[in-house]
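Subject: Tryptophan 2,3-dioxygenase

B.,
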Amino acid sequence: MNERSKTQELYYADYLQLPRLLDSQLPESRRHGREAHDEMLFIVTHQTYELWFKQILHELKSVLAAFAVAPLDEHSIGVIVARLERIIAIQKVLNQQIDVLETITPLDFLDFRDYLIPASGFQSVQFREIELRLGLGVHLPQPVTGRLRSEDVAYLGKVAGESSLFQQVDAWLARMPFLKFEDYDFWESYREAVKVMLARDKRSIEENPLFSEAERRAQLIELDNTRRKFEYLLDPTGFERLKAQGLFHLRQTSVLSALFIQLYRDEPILHLPFRLLSHLMDIDELFTAWRSRHALMAQRMLGSKIGTGGSSGHDYLQQTVDKKRIFKDLFNLSTFLIPRSSLPALPRRLKQSLDFHFTGERCV
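Prediction pasted inline below.
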């Protein structure tokens, strides 16, 4: 029997600190003498956002701690995938909460909006921290500002100086084996497979009777652009051109490793790495959807009015949606996928390295 059970039983409200939690909704409109009914919902929803942000950071920090071990312990990948899945589940709840917020009509919002100035969601330190720990600072290096208190600016500046998930994933992918195995160079086989695929696509365009001459020329020009991208992908100098075009932020070896995982995802040892990369795209997509819905909600609530934090409201939020995508590199990999039927066959010994081989209880 532990010390607590000897003296007192644990009570539900005490464990969750409900008196403190439920006494933390203090509408500004009440302080001004005329409480707006919908301000309570506005406060509760945003407090709930912050609680979920806290849980996302809890999961994200554990993922970063696992990646900080170099080389990554392969036993950790399952845990990382599970933690990312939890973040994704939370993000879906965050998006659903906008449905609740939108039960506040624009006219009801005006009953308390002016009392909130200059506070705004831009001052959510936790959300800023999530962005930085995911890797936004790698893509948009800029000083942390936005009407934040000096201590919050200092804290976020410290976070920005730490290794992000994007950087950790980049380093993990760069260390991946299998791209060159003994005397086998996978990328030479891949180059040949791409050449055959593009030649087939060219014949298909040239022989398609449904294209006009103008459409045929346009299709062939686009195909040539695709061919050039494939060439750049495998050439260090050319790859820098792809980076200059904003197609990639990862280093070349990391992109090639991620592509190999995508192409050979059916190999047993690549199942979890594939899910890991897919979950990073899910996280990026869900935060993009959250920002986009938030922008639309701001337009619905404010029209073209300036936001409470001094931004241009909807227009500003919508402009930041695509700029704040962190794992766009992984989405762009689809450009370089080839059909399973065209995939180069892997040498037997390499394929065995990507598999689990057992005969009864004896490993072969």
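The mean pLDDT is 88.

T.
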